[in-house]
Amino acid sequence: MSTLQGALLGAMAGLGLVLVGAVLVMRGRTTLESRVGPWLRGSSSETALVRSSGAVPVRGGAGASGPGAAAAGIAAPLLQRAADAVEAVLGGGASVRRRLERAGEPDDVHGFRVEQVQWGLVGFAVAVAWQTLGLLAGRGGLLSSLVVCAGAFACGVILRDRRLTQAADARDRAVLAEFPVIAELLALAVASGEGPVAALDRVVRRSHGALSDELARVLAQTRTGTPVARAFEAMAERSALPVVSQFAQGVAVSMDRGTPLADVLHAQAADVREAGRRGLIESAARREIYMLAPVVFLVLPVTVLFAFLPGVVGLRLVAP
Length: 320
What we know:
Helix content is 82%, strand content 0%. The chain is mainly α. The longest helix has 50 residues, at 142-191. It starts with a helix and ends with a helix. This is Type II secretion system F family protein.
């Protein structure tokens, strides 16, 4: 073992002992929650309006306590500076904010950058452990190990961004799948004589899902004094789906000009169902080649083998 390897192992062991000692010291202290919690039990800072809106709590709430919260408080300045550096390198704050809204997550770009740094640190730690084992076994060098660790950090950051995009796309698909049913329910409620706000409240209370959460947000805005048309326009601005944008704009225009809302909702639900049917047919047509792959590479060779193998074996037995 070289001097550099010994120094690296000693530094890692010393850092681990320091972290363990710090956790033990913090665990032995009496927390503020244990002293004040019994006197505040049963109280809640969440109002009925926030509960009805289906809002998501802000990242990293301030009510956490314990050793993990203390360690997070110590590392918070470093994480914030690292998040600022990631934001300066990557940019695209507007795109991140829009994807956060599409995914139904809190509109906190800086918190998302902190999560990216955390994912990068996880990848960096895994790469450090792997490269340390390689150095102990005599494989690789210090420069290549540093490059691999930096690449692992970058992969963690990119993977978190990719995960946000996947979450936004999955929520868009869920909204699109729920739209015909929600639109039909709204149309039935409006046709039965209820007003738009009352119909919206009834549908939100009777349904659950991504589109219901968006409608609950619209309902919460109307209850705080925002005009219904303006709340639906804000929903159209948030959505990346043309169908939902047309739905929100149609409701807003119908309420402004007094056009029949039930007919508009029925027509939009029928259009979405027809679009889904066309998309399913197009997807099946694109996947015909993939459907042929098992037949060509699995079923056909097995069939040929079963057809010719007995004859080949019989010829070998008959031949002198």
